[in-house]
């Protein structure tokens, strides 16, 4: 089961989701999207929370209000963290998550530490947590099928882009050839005219 939340502090709203337990987290790690940003309480046990970004946007484009929502949700879903003040939340793109065979269930590392960001949370803000909790939905998605559908759509988009580039290149080559043919024709006509003038009789005397 996956828990979904809606952060409507900006327009359009953002989707935040997390697994119910560490076994669910394994599937989320496996079938995450390139658009996903992963959140976790630093150095403490907590839920693995994901923010799904719109295509084309990066971790640096997360609206401040949405970032606060994610941080509050992570803190609230940490047994230790929810009782503490002044904790750090780490977050990074899904693609930076590293999972090896010797890791425990739900455990992850990072490919590149420099891509991990930190946001400090001073204390729990009940208004934010309650607002998010009201949007909570429990679903049983086919994560593998959703990932494949997303990847297939991306492949189709790239295919269309490649076709458009090829079409544009073909049109440009055709236009270039037409221009070359036109220059060649103009040059030929000029040459023929010069020959005609040289060989002809330009006298103004008429019989």
Helix content: 40-55%
- In terms of quaternary structure, the protein is single chain
The fraction of residues in strands falls at 15-25%
Shape: elongated
Distance between the termini: 106 Å
Radius of gyration: 31 Å
Give the neighbour order of strands across the main sheet: 8-5-3-4-2-1-9
Topology order in helix (H) and strand (E) letters? EEHEEHEEEEHEH
Largest sheet: 7 strands, antiparallel
Quick one: how many beta strands?
9
Low-confidence stretches: 203-207
The number of helical segments is 4
Average pLDDT over all residues: 89
| Structural class assignment | alpha+beta
Notable characteristics:
4 helices; 207 residues; 9 strands; two-stranded antiparallel ribbon; alpha+beta; disordered C terminus; seven-stranded antiparallel beta sheet
